[in-house]
Amino acid sequence: MSLIFITGKDLSSAKATGFGDGLRYISQPDSTEFIDLYDSLDASTSLSSVSSSHESRLYSHISSLGTSPPTPGSPYLLVVQTEIKDSDEGKDEFYKWYEEEHIPLLSKVNGFIRARRYKLEAVNGNEEKPNTYLALYEIQSPDFVKEQAFLDATSTPWMIDVGNKWVTSKSKGIWALKT
After folding, report:
1. What angle do CA 61, 65, 69 make, to 5 degrees?
2. DSSP secondary structure letter of residue 146
3. DSSP symbols for 60-100
4. What is the pTM of this model?
């Protein structure tokens, strides 16, 4: 399973052909950036199917937890992009923490719909390589990140240890479904 991720300020001309309709999200609270997401079950997906002058990325699926949201998609996304030190030990610990603690804890937060994790495979239109790992948390409300259970899940000793030892870069933001 793959994901095409296109980002920019005006995506009116962006299209990933052969994928049907993608989902468009707009940054919150400033509403100045957009992302388009296209899911693909085809393992041979490539960025050659993307018609866009904006940055486009191809991610391979790592894991998911939760149920698919109703059409047209989850009302909000928490998008987290992470880079870790290039080591097998770091990757193993990062994956283990995500699967055994982080995602299960976040799945208990009020407003959680689904979490999906991806690894960057290819990028077009960016001189600087984006972070390798992408997590998409499909949520009911931007207030998800204010819930005490979220704050607890994102400040565990294991998370702090993984962050201090292995994470070299991290960005996150809330995005609203554009209908």
Report:
1. 95
2. G
3. EEEEEEE-PPPTT--SEEEEEEEEE-S-HHHHHHHHHHIII
4. 0.89
